[in-house]
Amino acid sequence: MRGTGGLRIVDETCATTVPGLYAAGDAATRELICGGFTGGGSHNAAWAMTSGTLAGQGAADYARQAADGRELSSAGTVGLRSRSRRAFEPAALARAVQDEVFPYELNYFREASRLGGALARLDAAWRDVSEAGAAGAAELLRTRESAAMLATARWMYRSALARQESRGMHRRDDFPEQDHRQRHYLTSGGLDEVWTAVRPHAEAAYAEAAE
């Protein structure tokens, strides 16, 4: 999630909207400290260290407060469910996602028709792997990584299509100018169906973002 995207954090402990899940570094959004543009040093390096400390402390506090004896169940789907069809192939999926996000003409020089084409292929890949059988135990980590790559790519391109302007690190060939009417955040989510939503710029404060 290198850049300005990442998991939405809702308070000063780097908690997310999922109870018990804390984000740090590149996985956590940095919009609150650097807006629509970022890099690799300065406040970004400080964010990596600070968010790691805050998230670690927040997660530890949450674990201490959690009740003992809770029944746990699997929340994962893609690559984890037994199916009669072919087994999940994480290496093949990772390559397929890279083919859609590595080319500059898709991910850097953005334009609606190119983004839409890549997104259609990524959506088709999600439907395909959703029907695949569980991967082998030895490939469990790679399975989760490749599924996360696919989910992130779909969120990224849905958001890129929704922001019809050029702002910060986001550049649209078909919308080369910044639009003052789009001075807001975009949140995306969903798995089988990806959605995007507008959050006003005034929600920069943690307390407001958590509501």
UniProtKB/TrEMBL annotation:
GO cellular component: plasma membrane
Biological processes per GO annotation: anaerobic respiration
Domain named Fumarate reductase/succinate dehydrogenase flavoprotein-like C-terminal: residues: 108-182
Coiled-coil regions, chain positions: none
GO molecular function: electron transfer activity; flavin adenine dinucleotide binding; succinate dehydrogenase activity
One Pfam family recorded for the sequence: Succ_DH_flav_C
SUPFAM superfamilies: FAD/NAD(P)-binding domain (SSF51905), Succinate dehydrogenase/fumarate reductase flavoprotein C-terminal domain (SSF46977)
Domain of life per record: Bacteria
Name of this protein: Fumarate reductase/succinate dehydrogenase flavoprotein-like C-terminal domain-containing protein
